[in-house]
Amino acid sequence: MLKVGVLGAGHLGKIHLRLLNQSEKYDLIGFYDADIINGKKVETEFGYTYFENINDLIDAVDIVDIVTPTLSHFDCAKKAMEKGKHIFIEKPITNTLEEAENLLVLEDKFKVKGQVGHVERFNPAFTAVKDAIKQPMFIETHRLAEFNPRGTDVPVVLDLMIHDIDAILSVVKSKVIGINASGVSVLSQSPDIANARLEFENGCVANLTASRISLKNMRKTRFFQKDAYIAVDFLEKKVEVVKMKDAPEVPGDFDMVLQNAEGVKKQIYFENPTIAENNAILDELESFAEAINTDTTPVVTLKQGTEALKVALQIINAFENKSVLN
């Protein structure tokens, strides 16, 4: 079992602690939190060992799980990597692109592995259809959330939209060549609603919308590609797959057949992939242990986390520049 320690015992940190404690792939050594009062409280309430010194915890483990506020991600990761420790780091990978790129250098220098907590990659609805998503040419995402003061210290792009950015980059194997975006601050100092249009070198276009002041929660993405439409509901963990194939010479009574202006006939049919129940956070943590044990590439690499952050920051820069011009 790999020895693991958690940095940060906030809302998500406590979830990580619970899951790591129950995992058969990890030996949870303890945790560190900069707030001593909170650290002692969590130790008393749940029984996890609290380390008052961050370096003592890092020295005692093989893997450091970083679930601290984004502003401290880089410093925490740097401390761990310089001591030869593998790191699991929550999204976004760091606060700035420069910090993320520095982590890539440290990863190579100290020969350690890193994984970024883009948990939607492990959503069972997404994993059920990911292999069926081939060369999508238009993608539309809506990630809407009810207002929650927690997390409003960062733009909604880094808080919510980055999940969809990462998922899209994982299936569109092409370079982003154009970004048009708008962001609006309603309740927070930073934008609460954002829309972005990404244009890829291969012609694919992705339209992303994110809001954290909606009346209901929604996390849906639709992929359009040649002869297929794939919808993923990340929240309800459901998928809809609609495909087309050449129509039979003699259609059945219940076959759905369409004919275009050139007379070409296509049959519409539906697929229902099996969606397995899972705990996506536990799966991502255990997949990292598997990558270390087998010396393979993590599912969400630090480089991929850096690319998602790069696009997110370009989106923020796009609507900030627009507001200046107006």
From TrEMBL:
SUPFAM superfamilies: Glyceraldehyde-3-phosphate dehydrogenase-like, C-terminal domain, NAD(P)-binding Rossmann-fold domains
Origin superkingdom: Bacteria
UniProt-recorded name of the protein: Gfo/Idh/MocA family oxidoreductase
Gfo/Idh/MocA-like oxidoreductase N-terminal domain residues: 2-118
Stretches assigned to the GFO/IDH/MocA-like oxidoreductase domain: 156-216
Species assigned in the record: Maribacter cobaltidurans
Pfam families, per database record: GFO_IDH_MocA, GFO_IDH_MocA_C3
InterPro entries cross-referenced by the UniProt entry: Gfo/Idh/MocA-like_OxRdtase_N, Gfo/Idh/MocA_Oxidoreductases, GFO_IDH_MocA-like_dom, NAD(P)-bd_dom_sf
Transmembrane stretches, start-end: none
PANTHER family for this protein: BILIVERDIN REDUCTASE A (PTHR43377)
Signal peptide region: none
Coiled-coil ranges from the UniProt annotation: none
